[in-house]
Design brief:
homotetramer; mainly alpha
């Protein structure tokens, strides 16, 4: 009662909201039943995109401080998890859109020309703010992607492209992870030892296996030695930078190492939230990829070999973009450098203590 | 190119749509992060409600003609199935809303007072158009439910309450089902015979079962005779009307019989779409009930024993309404009158032929 | 290559697994197509129940030590979250089972008599291990629930009923929460002060509101004073114990207070995992309740007013049990005692420091 | 009571079922918590695969007769829809499996070597029975895919590969569609006319558009003429056969035409179930593709650049197979040949009458 009474109808702005569905097919005198569904699905997407942007912005604010406050990590993690929940919902919206059959779509498809999802400002903002760069994007129609946006939005998009993304902020935050190298503990030296021991053991197992022929032994040993060499990317900074320049990695060397530390020692209380945050970023990437893939399948179903409303070769472009428009690929690839927990070097007690609460 | 070019941004009215989220907490100088989610979830609900109403209206138009065109049944069925798909999606939206914790809700709860989902005009329209009557509604606050609506909407709601609902139209359509009683085939007589035979067999099985004592035989026989009596509702119109006046049934006697015929002989081509339409109505009822239940659970979680924003006793009211606000209950109860397929009377060939295509 | 090679088929025991579907309808010479679905859905349930039990047991092991190791909380939380994921999946299985229509079920229903989900040992174990007590269970057929189990399982069930449940272990763990009362900080005193200030403010707002009549002021003030009295349960141990004996609460006084502390100060690093664990327990309760409800709806659909295969009054019993068989109700009700974050007493710096990492 | 009483526990064979999880990690003395989840997820998959095969077999039986009974189409359609529901559920199981992190998988990954999903007999049977041919399969390891199966299953797989698939049966059924060409109605002639009119109109619109330059007119006209040429595949059997031999189509010319007729005139009562059956096959293909894609993403997440347990290059192979292992692609591509409903030639009344019921 402290505030003037509010009615649901006014609070949600329903007069405006429910008056925002203008059917083109109706305007041109050829009313098509399914156009309303088409509009409402896309409006629901845009509402959710607004929410996703709001959450991403708030998480970026948290990660923009140096250091990031420990007491903000729980909130940051919860908001990323909310983004995942929303994205899962939007994947489900495709089930609803697919209740429209291609023939029904054809009833109003030509009145929309050339409107297309390519022109969604908010979706492009989400991608860009998360960290998708121009060079990561699949080229389309020889024209920069932001040229498809409404004129009034192109400048803001270009500005956003020059600002730090969530990827960048997370990278800097990871680089500042303590414990990577302290006086009493050189994680990389001990991890490298563990990796080498593991492979030596494996090679010994091969060499002493009476069931294997000499040739098989040679071949298997070679395979193991090659696997061992893969780990050089982790232990040899120059080699890593080389691979990074070739585009095989994006994270800085130090950030990659920190991400590995977080993964390997995640059970230490201080690493639990960082671990959950990395997992949430992986989930966001995976759910966005799933969304793109379902969207591409739907486009194929709706259009066959026809070109998309935006003039793209439709399905083909979408399917290719699905594979390429990933952002946190390094976190996926990190797995390559894991060793089984039984081989992970134990933390010295003084380090373990620092990673725990001490009240 | 026949029409002026359209841009996604303008087509979807995004300027208006994305400007419709006015945070009360901001207005009062106490910005609460989760209020945006709260608004957007409810706006997404209202967008979907608009779509559901559009589909229900179109289905009602189809069922308003006499006779209903056979070539419209496929479309009617598909639109009801779309309503189901949308309702399943809206159940999923609760997962998103539950990423807001009760403490986060408390940050802005008092600025919304007394706004509440009870005031959703579209939801009430959906219920009413499907067939929920005033007498089916759980009383709340001694005031008719439509008094909670925005003043500008109360008259339209009262008008809608006096019009034929989808329930009414389906009932009339079912009543007109041919084949219920033809010269050559009296379905009810043969069905009644089948039911009696089935129970006579069962009673005989009991009586001749050497493992049963005399007392057990008596008890089991009595049980079977009572079950047989249940079927009287189906075969004795006066008895049925009696039960109907007591509120145990709502469908007219003839419509109930037709619904049973459709269920039992669904595999006949002419009954396939009616069967699917009845099933879709059941699914709509069930999904709405699930939505109400999840909503009630969420309210309990969000508010504990506190009263809802609409002044209701929150969870309790919602839980009770869940159980009571069903519409197509008769279709659920119809199962009571099924007999196993092996006992179903076979259709005479001339009837079966009429239920099939003949090209 | 360290271990003998394994084939997928043998590893999963598929010979045995895929030979475990014995159709009774086939055995009795009346093959019913949908019986296989019925068996496989229930076998899939039981596989998942085994996994759920495995996770619950491992979480109980973690919470059985005193103190519970901080470095185990992340794992415990992840396993509870896995239980939620599994339960959500099993809710989805109902969609699959509902592709069977009641008429199809009738084709084999009588050959199963009196088999029933009531006889599922694993489901009863899950409920019991989580903390459902005999007195919480809805009475059924005048006979203890475990009498429905297979004879070979009744003893194990009775033994489990005498052991500490997860509810009990969580309660003890919460009771040991530090920070509830330290030399420098009496949480309860400061929380009580905050609550009183909040209500005094509200009463003052009412009293000085020129739009309210004297009568309205009196009524509203009374309402606020009653709300304030509700909080006595939190601040007056005797009063709480009284309510607890009446069954309004189950958690010990101290555990309830600790749960509130965790909720209110969740952003402090040391409380993040406890907060997430409590939320996971709430989610488990809510998902189990949703499952029960969907199951009850399905039963109603499948059986109408017929009695269930287990001889129960089917739908009715299931619906009532849904409402009653909750376990962590206190965590839901806790919300009643929340105050908005702006009113929450700030932690003294030395306490906040102890709740954080200090490396 | 006609049959001996049955207990849930025995009916479901739970002794056997719940004793089928043999942890290799335990056998080798290195118990890994998550191995049970890994086993149970895959066992649940195999249970569902058994059900899917059962349904596909029953649908194949229905489509094996000539003619296919109209009164069986409803059942066939419902069973295909059940397959879709099951496949959607199995997509959801990936969410459960992803609660296992890569590090947890590493704890037992080497004891499973070289077991792999490639060795799933039932999955390969599903693909083969639906219609995936050897030439459609992405080559893997230079060895026929069935060589990965258990020895005891390779012969049955090879036999299945020589039998008619569901694709083949559906093709034959479509070819027999009446109405393709009757005395009074040549669908193809009138459809071709409609297509030509539509394009002539479009070309005229371009030519008379004052906003277009001569060059733009020329370019747009050329584009429309090319689109028109695409339709030749539909109207010129020789051209179609040519494309078919190049692998661009798989369906016979007549079956493709019938499928188009069904799509275009779906609202005619006799075409409703055929339309729904084609849609169900599309949905099955799309859901299997989604499953493969989610599975590929999960593999990438679990293994990074590591090779899969089956020795494959893991993620890469799975992603490529996703794109290639489609079966009913022609039904997707059919959309290319749709014209808007307003352009579809109207059925002559005598044909429309034959497509309807006449009681």
């Amino acid at each position: 009662m402290k505030y003037p009474p509010v009615h649901y109808h006014n609070y949600l702005g329903l007069d405006k909201l429910l008056d925002s569905q203008k059917l083109k097919s109706l305007e041109y005198g050829k009313p098509a039943h399914d156009e309303l569904l088409f509009i409402i699905v896309h409006q629901a997407y845009e509402l959710w995109f607004k929410q996703i942007l709001f959450e991403i912005n708030s998480v970026m604010t948290i990660f923009s401080t140096n250091p990031v406050e420990e007491s903000k990590l729980g909130v940051a993690c919860a908001r990323l998890e909310r983004v995942i929940a929303i994205m899962k919902l939007t994947v489900g919206q495709i089930d609803v859109l697919e209740t429209m059959t291609p023939l029904d779509f054809l009833d109003f498809r030509d009145v929309l020309y050339p409107a297309s999802g390519f022109q969604s400002f908010q979706w492009r903002l989400i991608e860009t703010k998360l960290g998708l760069r121009t060079q990561d994007r699949l080229a389309f129609n020889q024209s920069p992607f932001y040229k498809a946006l409404h004129e009034s939005q192109q400048q803001e998009m270009q500005d956003t492209m020059t600002q730090a993304s969530l990827f960048d902020l997370i990278e800097k935050w990871l680089e500042r992870t303590p414990f990577l190298n302290t006086d009493s503990f050189d994680f990389w030296k001990s991890y490298r030892g563990a990796v080498q021991n593991m492979f030596q053991d494996d090679i010994h197992t091969v060499q002493s296996n009476p069931r294997l022929s000499e040739e098989e032994k040679k071949k298997n040993t070679l395979g193991l030695e090659n696997s061992l060499k893969n780990f050089d990317a982790l232990f040899d900074e120059n080699y890593y930078e080389n691979l990074r320049q070739q585009g095989q990695f994006r994270l800085s060397y130090k950030a990659l190492q920190a991400a590995l530390l977080v993964q390997i020692y995640r059970d230490q209380p201080i690493l639990q939230l960082p671990f959950r945050i990395i997992r949430a970023l992986l989930d966001i990437d995976e759910t966005m990829t799933t969304w793109r893939y379902r969207h591409a399948l739907m486009a194929m179903r709706m259009l066959g070999q026809k070109i998309g409303t935006g003039g793209s070769s439709g399905h083909k472009y979408l399917a290719d973009a699905t594979a390429q428009h990933k952002i946190f690929t390094d976190f996926f690839n990190l797995t390559t450098f894991f060793v089984p927990r039984s081989q992970v070097p134990e933390l010295p007690p003084n380090i373990a203590k620092k990673m725990n609460f001490n009240y």
